[in-house]
Structures are given as C-alpha cells and as structure tokens.
Amino acid sequence: MQDIFENQRKYKKYDFINGVILGEIIAFFALAVLKNLEREIPGLHILVKFSWFIFLITPVLLTLWIYLFYVLGRKKPSLFQFGKFISIGVSNTAIDFGVLNLLMFVTNVQKGLLYSVFKSFSFLVAIVNSYLWNKFWAFESFETERMGRQFFHFAVISAVGFVINVALASLVVNFVHPVGGLSQKLWANVGAFVAVSVSVFWNFTGYKFLVFKR
Q: pTM for this one?
C-alpha cells in the first residue's frame, strides 16, 4: 500500500512539473503575440511592460488547472487525460500564434504568399510540440514496438489538420476583407484563430481514437 502511495505521489509531482514547463512555454509565446499587437490594441503595452508577471502567473494557473482535473480524475481517469490534453492544446495555440506573430513582427509581413509560409511553419512547430506532449504525457503511450505505425498515423492526421489549418487561415486573411475596422495585423490573427478552432476538433478525434488508442 505504501509503494502504491509513493508511486501516486511521484506521478502527481511529474504532472505538476510538466504543468510548470508548459506554463512557461505558453507565457513565452503569448508574449510574442502581445509584442506584435501592442500598437494595435490600446492598453496592451502595459502587459508587455509587466511581462514578468505573465511568466509568474501562467504556470500557477496551469498547475491549478491540472490539479483540478487530477482530483476529478480520481473517479473518472479520462477527465484527467482531458485536462492534460486541453493544457497541451493551449500550448499548441500559444506556439502557433507566437511563432506566427514573431515572424510577422520581424518581417512586417501580414498577408500574401509569405503569410501562408509563416502560418505553415508555425503550425508545424505546434504539431511537433503536440505529438511529444500528447504521446508521453496526456495519452501515456510509452510503447516502442509500434512507434513507426503510430507515427505514420500521427503524420496522416496531422497532415489533414495542417491542410485544414493553413487553408482556412489563408482563406480568411487573403480573400475576406477585415471586418469591424480591424487592421490587417489583427485580421491575420483572426484568420489563425478561425483555423485553429476548426482543426483542433479534427486533431483531438484522430489522436484519441486512432493514433494513441489503447
């Protein structure tokens, strides 16, 4: 009984450490978004000025989120898995938007073919992050016997998600005129948000029931 308790305690510590790491990742890429948009949204420069607070509060909030789903998962383990998946999804979104805005900030490009290239690259970086965290943490798929087949399934699901993500973002940004008086820079982020909102459902379904199924 004591050994079981010790294993559970180590398991919790492992999850919370991952929560802190993910929190810092989210904070870093969120800051890249804020830096690129600080001149577009009034008052946003204040958050950039106090960026240290973002790096402090984000890991705290994320570890609290994970603990909440850990408690809920004591009776239904799938809830704990869901909580971890959502945490990873937030980090994927932060990386996707962060890399995209960092490239736009450096190049001052917000539309056209180069925007599609930037969106493709940011999405691919987020996908790599998603695979590693979902495999080894959310779905705890540690087996190595079928890694080749598993990675193939992951690549197929991700490829379809990649097409959906980039196509929707490019469609909104390049063929739909900004509404509500939004600047092109803000509209570029609207396009990215629409894309990730749709592709996340495809990715979750594929990862859950095909790639990392038990």
A: 0.77
Average pLDDT for residues 91-109, to the nearest whole number?
93
Contact 72, 80 (CB under 8 A): yes
pLDDT of 158: 83
**Which two structure tokens, joined as six digits, stand for 119?**
């969106």
Listed residue (134, 59, 122) closest to 93, CA to CA: 122
Q: Is the dihedral of CA 65, 130, 191, 122 positive or negative?
A: positive
Q: What is the 3-state secondary structure (H, E, C) of the chain?
A: CHHHHHHHHHHHHHHHHHHHHHHHHHHHHHHHHHHHHCCCCCCHHHHHHCHHHHHHHHHHHHHHHHHHHHHHCCCCHHHHHHHHHHHHHHHHHHHHHHHHHHHHHHHCCCCCHHHHHHHHHHHHHHHHHHHHHHHHHHCCCCCCCCHHHHHHHHHHHHHHHHHHHHHHHHHHHHHCCCCCCCCHHHHHHHHHHHHHHHHHHHHHHHHHHHHCCC
Q: For residue range 48-64, list pLDDT tens digits in order.
A: 788 888 899 999 999 99
User: What was the pLDDT predicted at 2?
Assistant: 44
Closest to 176 measured CA to CA, from 196, 195, 163: 195
User: Which amino acid appears at position 162 of this protein?
Assistant: F
Q: How many residues does the chain have?
A: 214
Q: How far is CA 106 from CA 36, 55, 111, 171, in A?
A: 9, 23, 14, 23
**pLDDT at 10 (0 to 100):** 52
